[in-house]
Each structure stands twice: as structure tokens, then as C-alpha cells.
Amino acid sequence: MARSNRREAGRRRLAMRLPHMRKLIMEARDPWQLELFEAYQMAVEARDSVRRRRFNPNMVLEYDETCLVIERHVICAIEEASYAQQLKSDEPSYPGG
User: Fold this and answer.
1) Residue 64: other Cβ atoms inside 10 A
2) What one-character DSSP code corresponds to residue 91?
3) The organism sits in which domain of life (predicted)?
4) Is it the case that residue 11 has pLDDT exceeding 80?
5) 67 closest CA partner among 96, 92, 39
6) DSSP 1-66
């Protein structure tokens, strides 16, 4: 799967997994957020591949944990960007400034 396809697949998967952040995830454009989407998709693909082979349940658990860690990073990245955007919108605008 191409990099941009992985990013978008990861974005959609995360939007479904984290419905309370769906709108923010779908609007995300920050390179760090896009990297997280791609990493998430790659971890899910690896987990699903290991799960299909059914030979190592411990690896499935490791990939599940990796997916959860990436989800937490996504939540932080989205919340930080959202918070920064709120601060910018709350700044008073000055004429000529």
C-alpha cells in the first residue's frame, strides 16, 4: 500500500475508532499527525497479518498494545493542535498588527 493510501486508511480507521475526535481527525493536516495515521495503519496491518496466521498470540497482544499507544499519541496530537488553534482564535486582533 502506498504511503498516502496508508495515511488515509489510518485516518479513516482512527476516525471510526475514536468517534469523539472524528471531525478533528478528518481535518488534520499536520505532518506529525499524518505520520501517526500511517504508523497506525501499519501496526493494524501487521497485527491482522499475525492474527490470521494464528501462530503467536503474544505478538498479537504486542501489536494490540502498539495500536493503543499510537491511538494515545493521536489523541494528544489532535488535542494539542486543537488547543493551539483555540489559543490563536482567542487572541485579540489589533488594527495594523
Assistant:
1) 14
2) S
3) Bacteria
4) yes
5) 39
6) --HHHHHHHHHHHHHHH-GGGHHHHHH---HHHHHHHHHHHHHHHHHHHHHHHTS-HHHHHHHHHH
| Nearest partner of 43 among 23, 13, 81, judged by Cα | 13
Residue type, position 64, single letter:
D
Predicted confidence at residue 88, as pLDDT, reads 62
Tell me the C-alpha distance between 22 and 16, whole Å. 7
Could you report the per-residue pLDDT of 48-64, keeping only the tens digit for each? 999 998 878 899 999 99
Q: Is-contact 58 28, C-beta < 8 A? A: no
Grid cell of 40 as nine digits: 497506525
What's residue 23's pLDDT? 95
Q: Residue 97 has what pLDDT?
A: 46
The grid coordinates listed for 73 are 499519541
